Amino acid sequence: MTSPSHAHDPHRLEPEAFLEEVHSFEFWFQAVSGYLTGRPYGHAAQAANEAALDPRARERLLTVLANYCVGETAALEGASGLIGFAPNRQAKIFLSTQVVDEGRHLEVLLHRMRELGVADAEAEVERRANHTLVLFKRRLLELVASKDWEAAIFAQNVILEAMEFVVFQTHARRADPVTREILEGIVSDERRHIGFGENELGRRLKQSPHVRPRLAEVRRELDPLVLASFEETLAEVEVPRSERPELGRNYLAAVARLGFE
User: What is the largest CA-CA distance in the chain?
Assistant: First the structure.
C-alpha cells in the first residue's frame, strides 16, 4: 500500500498514525497520480489508431468488459453504502476514495466498449451480464443494506476485489495495448482496496474472534458464485484450461490470509 512518492514508509508508523495516513485523501492522491496523469479514460494509447480486432476477439472482449462493469458497479454501490455506517472517520474517508476509484473504473470500461463500436454500452452490459456475477452483486448489496460491516467488507474488499485483481492481472497480460493499460491502472487501485479489507478485518478478528464463523458462512455462500464467474471470464480471455486452477488458487489465497481455509 506504499507509494513511491512518499518520503517515508508508512508501515514504520505506529498503528493509529499508519491508519491516519493510508486511509487519507492525500495518500490516495499520491497513489493514483502517477498512473492517471495524462491518461484520459484510463489510457494514453491512441484507440483510434489501434489495429482492428477480429470479430470473434471483439465479441469476447465486449462480453468480458460488460462483466467487469457489473463487478465495478457492485463495488461502487457497495462502497458508497458502507460509508453511512462505517465505524470511524478513517474508514469513511478511505471508502470515499474507493467510491471515486470504482466510479472511474466503471466510466473507463464503458468508454472502452464505446471505443469498440458499441452505441449503447449500458444496454450491452445488461444483455451480456453473467448471471452468477449478477447474483453476487445482489448478495453483496443485501449485506450492505443489512449494515453488517464485517460481512460486507469481507464480500466486497476481500472476495470481490481479490477476484478482480487476479482476473484483471491475467487479462492484462493477454490484452490489446489499450485494454492492457486500462486494466493495469485498475489493478493498482485494487491492491489498495484489498489492503484496506485485509487490514480492517484482521484487526476486527483479533478483537472479536466470534465474527469468524459468520464470515466463514459468507464465504461458503459466495465462493461458488465467484469461482463460476471466474471460470467463465478466464475462458472468454482464452486462458488455457491448464492454467486456470493455479489462478483460482491465487484468488483463494487472499481469503486464506485471513484464516478462512
Answer: 56
Any domain includes 175 = yes
Closest CA to 69 of 119, 118, 112: 112
d(CA 103, CA 255): 25
Expressed as residue numbers, the domain containing 178 is 48-256
Whether 219 and 160 have beta carbons less than 8 Å apart is answered as no
Per residue in 226-250, pLDDT tens?
A: 889 988 999 999 888 888 888 888 8
Q: Is 98 contained in some domain?
A: yes
Asked whether residue 123 is assigned to any structural domain, the reply reads yes
Q: Please give the grid coordinates belonging to residue 137.
A: 452483486
Scanning 2-130, the segments in alpha helix (DSSP H) are 15-22, 25-36, 55-83, 89-115, 121-128
What CATH number is associated with residue 59? 1.20.1260.10
Q: CB burial class (10 A; 0-12, 13-18, 19+) of residue 230?
A: buried
Give the DSSP letter string of 119-175.
S-HHHHHHHH--HHHHHHHHHHHHHHHTT-HHHHHIIIIIIIHHHHHHHHHHHHHHS
Residue 185 lies in a domain: yes
Residue 19 in contact with residue 90, Cβ under 8 Å? yes
Residues 154-204 have pLDDT tens digits of: 999 999 999 999 999 999 999 999 999 999 999 999 989 999 999 899 889
Counted domains in the chain: 1
Calpha distance 109→183 (Å, rounded): 9
Report d(CA 126, CA 105) in Å as an integer.
17
By the 8 A CB rule, do 234 and 242 touch? no
Closest of 50, 55, 56, 160 to residue 98, by C-alpha: 160
